[in-house]
Amino acid sequence: MGEQQQSYTQTPQAGRIIISGGGTGGHIFPAIAIARALQQLQPDIQILFVGAKGKMEMEKVPQAGYPIRSLDIKGMDRSNWWKNITLPYFILKSILQARHILHDFKPHAVVGVGGYASFPMLFAAQQVGIDTYIQEQNSFAGKANQWLAKKATRIFVAFDGMEKFFPKEKMMVTGNPVRQDILAENISKAEACRFFELDPQRPVVLVVGGSQGARSINRAVQQNIEFLISHQIQLIWQTGKLDYENIQQFIDSKAEQIQYRAQIKVMPFIQDMARAYAAADVVVSRAGAIAIAELCVMQKPAILVPFPFAAEDHQTHNARMLAEKQAAWMIADAEVQEKLVHAIIDLCTDEEKRKNLSEHIGKLAIRNADKRIAETILQDLKRRYHELSCSVSTNVNHHS
Fold first, then answer.
1. Is 211 annotated as a binding residue?
2. Are strands 302-304 and 282-285 parallel, antiparallel or unpaired?
3. Average pLDDT in the 212-217 region?
4. Are the beta carbons of 362 and 325 closer than 8 angstroms?
5. Structural domain containing residue 238
6. Residue 1 falls inside a structural domain
7. pTM of the prediction?
8. Do 215 and 321 fall into the same domain?
9. Annotated binding residue at 240?
10. What's residue 213's pLDDT?
11. Of 26, 255, 362, 380, which sits most exposed with the smallest number of CB within 10 A?
């Protein structure tokens, strides 16, 4: 499904909100969670998403039932600097496109959740005096959000100690929104294992490198697969689209060893994460903020392998924060080949270590971040509408 154009009613009481950003599931899922929370609190609210052309949100957002428009924007290439020559052109073009969207939709507020489309949309809104909200998901704020924060109405943060990046008076610690399907489900390990055709009596490891997969994690697991199998460990393995075919062929090549098929469930993308979490005794994951929020809510013992090329190395900051609170184990991407599989086996065979991690990570869980964000935005809109009404009334009385 692609970009949708539609006409919008101009009722100020209903409220019109733009939610901008995306690129990965880590930005898209919280954006949709915020949209749904806004609708639950105010059913007649009008919501428009704005994403980056060709990115994941252009498919996922319409699937969730929301209209979306796109900007011609791309991110900075941190490994090939010469590819950034055209970046100023794309930034300028996307800001002009954002202005057209603002003119068409006439929003009362714009919410940026991170990702390529977030910056031009928030910047354009701030230029014309529209209220802007930043949802900063990570424990280390990106440069764009730090710059935009100066004119932002509020900044919703997920971690304590963010005043080193943002004005303290604008900040609100809300946590990160988590997918409702994960929050709502109450599935036993036995039931989840039946769904994945696994043995509930044996340890299950969920390997998930984010919506795009993680090559270094995939290689480490693939190269040590026989070692894992020999310890009776079962895998639910989200490979990402790029690695899926290669890994599936590798598993198929060992088809004569029946336990490979029985113990390993490989898929490019896991649709039912609630069941995957429920089945798992241990989770191996990148350290994106939303992945961490889900692990906290699900209270899962986790081994975090931060993606080393994330902007401002924010995943390392996220993972280190949990490791310092004994809420997760952290392995650097450069050490994943030699350390990951041994850490998996260590955790799978030591119930006390798993229990300790589960208790500590559970203390960091915030289950209603989406509702807290939505309530604050709607309260601000009502206050702003009331102030404008009073101002108009005062002017009318004055002139009469």
1. yes
2. parallel
3. 79
4. no
5. 181-362
6. no
7. 0.82
8. yes
9. no
10. 57
11. 255
Provide the b/e sequence for 351-388 (b: ≥16 CB within 10 Å).
Answer: eeebeebbebbeebbbeebbbbbbebbbebbeeeeeee
Spatial separation of the C-alpha atoms in residues 52 and 114, rounded to whole Å: 11
**Domain membership flag for residue 11:** no
Distance CA 293, CA 296 (A): 5
Tokens coding 171? 């900040």
93 token code pair: 């073009």
Does 238 count as an annotated binding residue? Answer: no
Q: Is 344 annotated as a binding residue?
A: no
Beta bridge partners of 157: 136, 173
Higher pLDDT, 181 or 95: 95
* Percent above pLDDT 90 for the chain: 67
In DSSP terms, which residues pair with 236 in a beta bridge?
206, 265
Whether 210 is in a domain gets the answer: yes
What is the gyration radius of the CA atoms in the chain, in angstroms?
23
Tokens of 9: 């009613």
Say how far apart CA 283 and CA 281 lie, in whole Å.
7
Q: State residue 9's pLDDT score.
A: 40
65 with 187, same domain: the answer is: no
Q: Annotation-wise, does 188 bind a ligand? A: no
What's the pLDDT tens digit per position in 320-375?
A: 999 999 999 999 999 999 999 999 999 999 999 999 999 999 999 999 999 999 99
Tokens standing for residue 222: 């693939």
Length of the chain: 400
Residue 314's pLDDT is: 87
Residue 24 is labelled as binding a ligand: yes
Residue 45 CA to residue 89 CA, distance in Å, equals 34
CA pair distance 30, 289, nearest whole angstrom: 10
Confirm or deny that 5 is annotated as ligand binding. Answer: no
